[in-house]
Design brief:
Layout (H helix, E strand, L loop, with lengths): L1 H23 L2 H12 L3 H10 L6 H9 L7 H13 L6 H7 L3 H5 L7 H17 L8 E12 L5 E12 L4 E9 L10 E6 L2 E8 L4 E12 L4 E9 L8 E6 L5 E8 L7 E7 L7 E6 L7 E6 L5 E8 L2
Parallel strand pairs: 1-9
Antiparallel strand pairs: 1-2, 2-7, 3-6, 4-7, 5-6, 8-13, 9-12, 10-11, 10-13
């Protein structure tokens, strides 16, 4: 039975390669080895993912296993967790490898928000939203979003206020999930969320280690598809150390976004700048220096129409 023996040897080699890749990575090598060990063509992998309610193209799967791209969006991270089950891998094995980055890549990323922390926070956010029975699609399209961030005298993130203008794209929407990701070392259990206008507080969920807090904001009406709605809320933080930037991520294109960062007059930064990133794993680009306004000690940016990715403001204290 030489033919059967040959197949057994190939399977043994594939399993050994997979075990090695799962221990040492990198992510794309482990993914490629897992797919090979299970003998699944990418079209079948895509089909299995669809049964988990996750949509990922064959091209994206190919890029992931080649290392040409990395899963970064919440939907992509859901796909990675589903792949662990589909490919019969240990829980968190691929997510762990995805979070491990080399030193060169780390130098291109924000010092206060590492890629590892963002991946971990994304997974935590997914679980917190599930606890609140919130679908990934909120049913709301952002027409406008204005954020005001306050930095205190101790150089800490004191809090922020968000003003949203949204349009419902399906019937029955009656709530919004407000998400706050504090600076490293923060204590979400000591934060407070306030419903300021056209909404009231619902349930709150938090995760201490990642600093993620999710607050349910309830509307007093059920929106119909096409209805517009305005609401405001605020988050009191002030629980972490020195803050050096504020970032906002967007999973899809949307309307206007404006970010204003105000500083206490007793602690003013020496430089401020805006930046963009295609994803948490990508290097920063679009750097532009921002000048502090004389009277109100603030800087701002305006994106007339946001695109998928990250936009933010950073500052240097000395």
């Amino acid at each position: 039975m030489p033919h059967a023996t040959q197949h057994a040897d190939v399977a043994t080699v594939a399993t050994a390669e997979l075990d090695t890749a799962l221990r040492g990575g990198p992510f794309h090598v482990a993914l490629r080895a897992a797919i090979a060990a299970r003998g699944l063509p990418l079209q079948r992998v895509q089909h299995h993912l669809s049964r988990y309610g996750v949509k990922v193209g064959v091209t994206s799967l190919s890029y992931w296993q080649q290392g040409a791209r990395r899963p970064q969006r919440p939907e992509s991270l859901r796909a990675v967790r589903a792949l662990e089950e589909i490919l019969q891998l240990p829980e968190e094995s691929l997510i762990r490898l995805l979070a491990e980055t080399d030193e060169r890549s780390a130098e291109q990323r924000p010092a206060s928000r590492t890629y590892r922390s963002l991946v971990a926070a994304s997974g935590v956010l997914e679980r917190l939203l599930a606890e609140l029975d919130s679908p990934l699609d909120s049913g709301l399209h952002a027409l406008g979003h204005h954020e005001r961030v306050r930095i205190g005298a101790r150089r800490e993130l004191l809090g922020r206020e968000s003003h949203h203008i949204v349009r419902a794209h399906r019937d029955g929407v009656d709530r919004f999930m407000a998400v706050h990701h504090g600076d490293p070392g923060c204590a979400p259990e000591r934060m407070a969320v306030h419903a300021l206008e056209n909404c009231r507080m619902g349930r709150v969920r938090l995760h201490h280690d990642t600093g993620v807090l999710v607050a349910e904001l309830l509307f007093d009406t059920r929106l119909r598809a096409g209805d517009t709605f305005l609401f405001r809320y605020a988050v009191e933080d002030g629980t972490a150390g020195v803050s050096r930037e504020y970032v906002r991520g967007f999973g899809a294109a949307g309307g206007q976004y404006a970010l204003q960062v105000g500083f206490d007059q007793r602690a003013l930064p020496v430089r401020c700048h805006r930046f963009t990133q295609h994803s948490a794993a990508a290097p920063r680009s679009g750097r532009q220096e921002l000048a502090l306004s004389g009277r109100h000690h603030s800087v701002h940016l305006v994106e007339p129409r946001v695109r998928s990715g990250i936009v933010g403001i950073g500052w240097d204290w000395e």
